[in-house]
């Protein structure tokens, strides 16, 4: 059996290496052959709708609205629309308090999930440009102006912003998640050089409202991948605007971050498969290659990690020094990860923090594959770090 273990080990290792390092390297090389096309200066500013999907966000929604109103984008060209997914706390009352300042509240009669909330928000939006934002994402004053300026180029259909993370005191999961997101930002910058930004951060991205097609709601998807992908497949450009900056507080509980990743990964599988079907007919080779390299291999990475572990164990039994060392390294990684999860104070050391994060990614990927296969993905979501609210009756 060990004669088949060796090719399995190196195939799994090679695919992981390609997914995380080979793909960005190829993006960089392709980008070197592309002509640098700077965006023209906008002749006139378009109207903008800032759409915020919210569920039980009373902790941050007031600050988010104040943040939006403090933007340096002209007040007469900006509207703020908050879609409440049947919030059961004080979210709706806080938003209604800003009605005199032009903020609109849309309340869904029952919990329908973020996809349905965004569909409703875009349908109600009046702006030529729609900017999607999370309730806990705080924008720099010039962020909307910088984001919208890229639409002066008539080829651009989607613009993503730059997300930065704030780490609360006592955080354990946040620092390594922030590191992972910084890596993702590098990949997105490289994709943007090809005018083919595959996905964005849900905290900040903008689209031309006329390009939006209502998303399916019968099976949950990842909106900040599905919307840009749909517009890319229509032949429009998707780019990153690093001058448009927002910040959010990262999740600091490994348990919360694990549940969030399982939810997102399971939804991403549906989103990616849908995109692949559309990308193959008619054929869109660049987008299909990006989907496979950036998304498919990431969503099934648990298979490669498990394959490396099992085949590595079989090879280590043969006593060859190389495979003994490689298998021992894997064992050490997962032991350190478990220790970091069991004793969060250890995650103050980068080695334990990184090991915990990698271990969590592997477990979350496995759980997401089973969740997706069982059809147990949920449309609803919870705010970061929220406690279960006391439900209030709504007479609306």
Task: Describe it.
The protein is of the alpha/beta class and 396 residues long. It has helices spanning 2-32, 61-69, 91-96, 114-124, 143-149, 174-193, 223-233, 254-280, 285-299, 301-317, 321-342, 350-373; strands at 48-54, 78-84, 104-107, 129-133, 138-139, 156-166, 205-208, 237-249. Strands 3-2-1-4-7-6-8-5 form an 8-stranded mixed β-sheet. The relative contact order is 0.15. Mean pLDDT is 87; it is low at 386-396.
Q: What's a concise summary of this model?
A:
The protein has 396 residues and is α/β, with parallel strands linked by helices.
Largest sheet: 8 strands, mixed
The proportion of residues in beta strands is 5-15%
Which oligomeric state applies? single chain
**What's the number of helices?**
12
Class by alpha and beta content: alpha/beta
* Helix content percent band: 40-55%
The CATH homology group name of the largest domain:
Spore Coat Polysaccharide Biosynthesis Protein SpsA, Chain A
Strand order of the largest sheet: 3-2-1-4-7-6-8-5
Q: Please identify the top-level CATH class of the largest domain.
A: Alpha Beta
Q: CA-to-CA gap between the ends? A: 66 Å
Mean pLDDT: 87
Radius of gyration: 22 Å
- Tally the structural domains: 2
Q: Helix and strand succession?
A: HEHEHEHEEHEHEHEHHHHH
Number of strands: 8
Spatial shape: globular
- CATH architectural group of the largest domain: Alpha-Beta Complex
């Amino acid at each position: 059996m060990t004669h088949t273990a060796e090719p399995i080990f190196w195939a799994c290792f090679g695919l992981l290496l390609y997914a995380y390092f080979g793909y960005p390297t190829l993006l960089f090389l392709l980008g070197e052959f592309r002509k640098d096309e700077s965006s023209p200066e906008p002749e006139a500013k378009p109207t903008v709708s800032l759409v915020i999907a919210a569920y039980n966000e009373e902790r941050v929604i007031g600050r988010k609205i104040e943040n939006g109103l403090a933007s340096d984008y002209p007040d007469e060209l900006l509207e703020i629309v908050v879609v409440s997914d049947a919030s059961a706390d004080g979210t709706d009352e806080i938003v209604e308090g800003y009605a005199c300042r032009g903020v609109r509240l849309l309340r869904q009669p029952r919990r329908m999930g973020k996809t349905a909330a965004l569909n409703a928000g875009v349908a109600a939006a009046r702006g030529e440009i729609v900017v999607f934002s999370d309730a806990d994402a705080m924008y720099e004053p010039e962020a909307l102006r910088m984001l919208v300026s890229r639409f002066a180029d008539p080829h651009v259909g989607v613009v993503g912003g730059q997300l930065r993370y704030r780490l609360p005191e006592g955080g354990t999961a946040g620092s390594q998640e922030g590191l992972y997101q910084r890596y993702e930002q590098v990949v997105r910058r490289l994709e943007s050089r090809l005018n083919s930004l595959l996905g964005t951060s849900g905290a900040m991205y903008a689209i031309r409202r006329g390009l939006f097609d209502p998303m399916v709601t019968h099976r949950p998807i990842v909106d900040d991948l599905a919307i840009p992908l749909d517009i890319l497949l229509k032949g429009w450009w998707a780019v990153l605007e690093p001058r448009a900056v927002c910040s959010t507080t990262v999740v600091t509980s490994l348990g919360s971050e694990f549940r969030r990743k399982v939810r997102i990964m399971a939804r991403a599988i549906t989103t990616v498969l849908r995109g692949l079907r559309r990308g193959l007919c008619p054929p869109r080779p660049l987008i299909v290659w990006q989907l496979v390299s950036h998304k498919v291999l990431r969503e099934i990475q648990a298979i490669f990690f498990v394959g490396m572990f099992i085949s590595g164990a079989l090879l280590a039994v043969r006593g060859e020094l190389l495979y003994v060392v490689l298998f021992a390294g894997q064992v050490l990684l997962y032991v350190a990860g478990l220790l970091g999860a069991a004793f969060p104070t250890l995650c103050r050391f980068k080695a334990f923090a990184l090991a915990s994060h990698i271990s969590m990614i592997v477990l979350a990927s496995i759980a997401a594959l089973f969740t997706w296969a069982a059809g147990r993905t949920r449309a609803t979501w919870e705010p970061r770090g929220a406690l279960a609210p006391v439900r209030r009756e709504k007479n609306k």
